[in-house]
Amino acid sequence: MIRSLRIYQWIKNLFIFSPLIFGQNFFNFEKFQATSWVFLGFCALSSCIYIINDFIDKERDAQSPYKNNIFVQRGVVKARPVLFLSGFLFLLGCILCAKVNQSAFWIGIGYIILNVIYSLYAKQFIIIDVFFISLGFQARLWAGGVASGIFPSFWLQACIFCLSLFLGFAKRRREIYLLKGLAIHYRENLLNYSVRLLDILLFGCAGLTALFYTAYVFLSFSARKISPFCIRLSVVLVVVGIIRYLCLVYSDKKRSDPSELILSDIFVLSVIIIWVAYIFILLYR
To answer: Angle CA(263)–CA(164)–CA(95) in degrees, nearest 5?
Structure first.
């Protein structure tokens, strides 16, 4: 039953800490505690959504050898206790978010509604499906903002929005590559995604992510009197990470999920860890 929680997917919820980190309040105990409660709340809510999505997609996921849908793995778990677990996680997530403030609670509710609409309807339409995924990342960012009292700037929001689009289109590109002829049986809207279109969207979103990140750090970090040379180094790390991830998208690794791809590649993990450490040095030295 633990597998149904998709714990490795919780790394996406780390975006909740973005406003706290970039707002230079990471070591403010009250703000860190509030943000941590929201982070835990979103971990519960996201696991709840994964269980619901698995239940809705159990027949379709049976067509894919790369999906970890617990409802299509014989003898692993029965549906009723897992759906009961989903309800418990929903209540737990709402309570943890409400513990911080009313805004965090309503963002959590909005996140659930957004994902239910995605699972039932939005995933059938090309482009729109990935936009819904990106809105989920924005919800995490806003939740972190209301928890810490530091609402993210336009440039940071634009950067994370484009980054999530990049990850979403990369996943679709990997699904077409890995599933080949089975792709349309697993996800019908993959029939309307052409390889050329996804390549254009993928590289376009990669470029926009780098562009918006550059704009954000130069506008934000320069105001804090951080050396332009040091700022450029952080941009280089981001570009290197994006390029390496693009290499993984076109590799033969038998994974389509962004979290699995990142966690399975020591190069990407190293770049992310170095980038995070470098940002902390710049902002908190």
So the answer is: 85
Helix 79-100 with 128-148: angle, nearest 10 deg: 40
In angstroms, the CA 284 to CA 33 distance is 18
pLDDT (tens digit per residue) in 56-96: 766 565 555 555 544 445 444 566 777 788 899 999 999 99
pLDDT digits (tens, 9 = 90+) for 155-199: 999 999 999 999 999 988 888 877 766 655 566 677 788 889 999
The CA-atom distances, in angstroms, between 83 and each of 67, 73, 88 are 19, 16, 9
Dist CA 62 CA 67 (whole Å)? 8
For the domain covering 1-152, report its CATH number: 1.10.357.140
The whole-angstrom separation of Cα 215 and Cα 3 is 40
